[in-house]
Write a structure and sequence with these properties.
About 10% of the residues lie in helices and about 55% in strands. The chain is mostly beta strands. The protein has a 22-stranded antiparallel barrel. A five-stranded mixed beta sheet has the order 3-8-9-6-7.
Length: about 625
């Protein structure tokens, strides 16, 4: 047993060394060849400013973390319909349908414990589900008002608390600027149709950005294991959305802001006559100060409400307050401090509980210390006081080394704390064999580690490599099928590697490639098992991008391999997406999309071998649309 474990570890190390060797040899050759190209060519956004990893504006190369950014330009060029679609093409990120036509969840580094923020405001709830995910990405109303999506891989519990194990996603929205209105109309396969309007502007220190949308689908088609094309029964939806952002400038350093987000979903459930109706209403008001400084501050009050009607009604309301401030202490220290309070009140009467309250209070502190010209140390600590589980401390430390303006090496280590959700503790339903939570559940705890580097061969070519591992004790999992019981496992371990490469060939052509490996194992009743529900043991990504005059086109392919056939029906599959757009006039764009171009059969969610429900992914899908701005 010990010998087999060592053999697997050697294979894992071998994967990393092979990847690094191939990258160093192959990509260096590309860098030499590219040196003869036009030096004035546009650079990749390696020097752009990010805010999520350290809760303050920091250059990407100065941030000790593995970060990807989906920009507004990416969203517009690919005409992404929603956040899940945009995240699907981020290396190492897996988006699932959450076992429901209405839900979309995300995994980073193979972990569902991911914090999702909108402009730094938490949208995870503490009601949870029978997985480790605690946020539905379908609640995001629009893509039209998104400036960028920052994806930070690795633990972030020291700053963001519970759920920040696999990583953090921060959706940063646009502030209204010049007066304009954008209309986007599209139609596609399965009688899919979408109508969206966005209006923005500013006047006399007040700016606004408003979006509203309607989405409808009758059904979708899929490919069966026998190679036939079929139409999924009960797979339609009727979704409505609205968002509003208002900003009022007080002076050059401060402003107030109000946000409102609404999303309603009426989704048919696969192979079921029932509907799942969901309602999301989120409100927040914030006072921003020191906006002209390197360490801006904010005080925010927010209220997030979720209501679901599916075989009974359940709902949760998350009310919270955030405060953050910062100071530049000389030239070498930037100090961030913050405090949080939130209360989650959850009801799931059909499944055993009503008005269960969970209160969490926290304070955190982080210092970004440049202690030498090329070295930055980032220590931080967070204290959480949970109404059920008391006080927990989660320290983290990260080190960043910039050898020069081309090379970055970083390493980080942090503790993990994740409290059980309301469903984990109080769920009780004896029907269909039974689903049982555990009121005596223990919180999850452990650590995460990341080591990585970024190398910029030239203004057009960038390579990033990182390796990670995590270990969680008392890991929570719902074990068994009819009955299924919430169980604290002795441990859960993950390890993996993430490699990405970008190269801009010319002003017209560019491409990117990526590879990710994730291994998950856990201790079930004293026996070590490799997770059969790993949705992406090996992930390969490839994209080619074309921009010439009024034309834009993108081909993006994602391959998953090493899957367990008993849960996914096949060992590997490749999805190819294509889109093209033509700017017919300065304010008019016509676009076309083809998703799953080769019509592959795959599963969006691992099914139980004994389950009668197979969650087939959507087959070949076509969409045509037009965007007009006036």
């Amino acid at each position: 047993m010990m010998y087999g474990q060592k053999q697997k570890e050697r294979k894992f190390v071998g994967r990393i060394l092979a990847a690094l060797t191939l990258g160093a040899v192959g990509f260096s050759a590309m860098g030499v060849a590219a040196a003869a190209e036009d030096a004035a060519m546009e650079e990749f956004a390696i020097d752009e400013i990010v805010v999520t990893a350290e809760r303050m504006p920091t250059k990407l190369m100065d941030t000790p973390a593995n970060i990807s950014v989906v920009t507004a330009e990416d969203i517009a060029a690919n005409h992404y319909n929603n956040v899940p679609e945009a995240l699907t093409h981020v290396n190492g990120v897996v988006v699932t349908n959450g076992d429901s036509n209405a839900d979309r969840t995300v995994r980073i580094n193979g972990d569902e414990r991911v914090v999702v923020l909108v402009d730094g405001r938490r949208i995870n709830n503490d009601q949870g589900s029978m997985t480790r995910a605690s946020v539905n990405l379908n609640m995001i109303p629009s893509m039209k008002n998104i400036a960028r999506i920052e994806v930070v891989r690795g633990g972030g519990s020291a700053l963001y608390g519970s759920d920040a194990v696999g990583g953090v996603i921060n959706i940063i929205t646009k502030k209204g600027k010049k007066l304009r209105t954008t209309v986007d109309l599209s139609t596609g396969s399965g009688r899919t149709r979408s109508y969206e309007i966005a209006n923005e502007g500013s006047d006399n220190g007040v700016s606004w950005f408003v979006t509203a949308g309607i989405e409808r689908r009758d059904h979708f088609s899929y490919k069966t294991p026998t190679g036939e094309n079929d139409s999924r029964v009960h797979s339609g939806y009727a979704n409505n959305s609205f968002s509003l952002r208002l900003d009022k400038t007080i002076d050059a350093a401060s402003s107030v802001r109000f946000d409102a987000e609404h999303r309603s979903i009426d989704a048919e459930i696969y192979n079921n006559s029932a509907h799942q109706e969901e309602l999301f209403n989120n409100l927040s008001i914030a006072y921003n100060f020191k906006e002209d400084q390197a360490t801006p501050g904010v005080f925010r009050i927010y209220d997030n409400y979720k209501h679901v009607d599916y075989l009974g009604v359940f709902h949760t309301r998350l009310t919270g307050m955030d405060y953050q401030n910062g100071w530049s202490l000389g030239d070498n220290h930037k100090l961030i401090v913050g405090a949080e309070w939130r209360e989650s009140k959850s009801t799931n009467a059909p499944n055993g509980y009503v008005d269960q309250s969970i209160i969490n209070k926290a304070i955190y502190l982080q210092d970004t210390w440049t202690f030498a010209p090329k070295w930055t140390l980032v220590p931080g600590v967070r204290m959480d006081n949970h109404s059920r589980f008391g006080t927990h401390w989660t320290p983290k430390v990260a080190l960043n080394y910039n050898a020069d303006d081309k090379a970055q090496v970083y390493v980080s280590w942090g503790r993990i704390f994740k409290a059980p959700t309301a469903d984990d503790m109080y769920y009780f339903n004896p029907m269909w064999g039974g689903y049982y939570g555990d009121p005596n559940a223990s919180p999850e705890s452990g650590y995460t580690e990341t080591l990585g580097f970024t190398y910029k061969f030239n203004p057009r070519t960038t390579l990033g490599v990182s390796v990670f591992q995590s270990e969680i004790h008392d890991a929570i999992e719902w074990v068994g099928v009819m009955p299924s019981r919430m169980t604290n496992l002795a441990y859960e371990k993950k390890r993996g590697v993430d490699i990405s490469f970008q190269h801009k060939i010319s002003d017209v052509w560019s491409y990117d490639v990526g590879y990710s490996y994730t291994h998950t194992e856990a201790d079930y009743s004293g026996s070590r098992e490799i997770s059969a529900r790993n949705m992406q043991p090996n992930g390969y990504r490839f994209g080619v991008h074309y921009t010439q005059g009024a034309w834009k086109a993108n081909v993006m392919a994602t391959t998953r391999s090493g899957l367990d056939e008993s849960y996914f029906a096949r060992r590997a599959y490749t999805l190819v997406d294509f889109n093209a757009s033509y700017e017919a006039a300065r304010d008019l764009t016509i676009y076309f999309k083809a998703l799953n171009l080769t019509n592959q059969m795959y599963h969006e969610y691992p099914f139980q071998p004994t389950s009668w429900t197979k969650h087939y992914g959507q087959g070949r899908f076509f969409q045509v649309g037009v965007t007009y701005t006036f």
